[in-house]
Specification:
- This protein is α+β, with helices and mostly antiparallel strands.
- The chain starts with a helix and ends in an 11-residue tail after the last helix.
- It binds tetrahydrodeoxyuridine (THU).
C-alpha cells in the first residue's frame, strides 16, 4: 500500500494539469490500486459546462481502461480549507467499480478528512438491486 502522503502528493501533482477555466476550481485525484499502483486524474471542463468530468472520474476511467479492477483508496485535492468530497455521480461510480474504498481529502498542505465511501453513499442503488 502506498503511504497516505504519497497518494495525496500524487493528487496534488495531478491537480496541476486541471483544465478548469470556467470554474477556476482545480481538482486532483489519485486512485490507489490493490497492487500499490497509483492512477491520477484532474478535472476537465468544457465550454458547454455540462460535459465537465471530475478528477475522480478521470482517474477511475483511466484505471479501468488500463485493466485495473481492484482499488483501495482515492485521494482528492483542492485548494480549500474545507474538505472537497466527491460529488454524487462520482460517489455512484466509485461505489460501482471500487466498492467501499477509503476517500482521503486534502488541500495543498494538509489532510482535511477521510471517510469510507459507504458513509458518503448510504443506501446506494447498485447491481444487487437488479437481480
Ligand atoms: N470537481 C471535481 O473534479 N471533483 C470534486 O470532487 C468536486 C468538483 C470539479 C468539477 C468542476 O470542474 C469544478 O470542480 C467545480 O465544480
Amino acid at each position: 500500500m502506498a503511504g497516505s502522503d504519497a497518494l495525496v502528493e500524487a493528487a496534488r501533482a495531478a491537480r496541476a494539469f486541471a483544465r478548469a477555466p470556467y470554474s477556476g476550481f482545480a481538482v486532483g485525484a489519485a486512485l490507489e490500486c490493490a497492487d500499490g499502483t497509483i492512477v491520477t486524474g484532474c478535472n476537465i471542463e468544457n465550454a458547454t459546462y455540462g460535459l465537465t468530468v471530475c478528477a475522480e472520474r478521470v482517474a477511475l476511467f483511466k484505471a479501468l481502461s488500463e485493466g485495473r479492477d481492484q482499488f483501495v483508496r482515492i485521494a482528492v485535492v483542492a485548494d480549500t480549507v474545507a474538505p472537497t468530497p466527491p460529488c454524487g455521480p462520482c460517489r455512484q461510480l466509485l461505489w460501482e467499480y471500487c466498492g467501499d474504498i477509503q476517500v482521503v481529502m486534502a488541500n495543498l498542505t494538509v489532510e482535511t478528512g477521510r471517510h469510507q465511501l459507504a458513509a458518503l453513499l448510504p443506501l446506494p442503488f447498485d447491481a444487487r438491486l437488479l437481480d
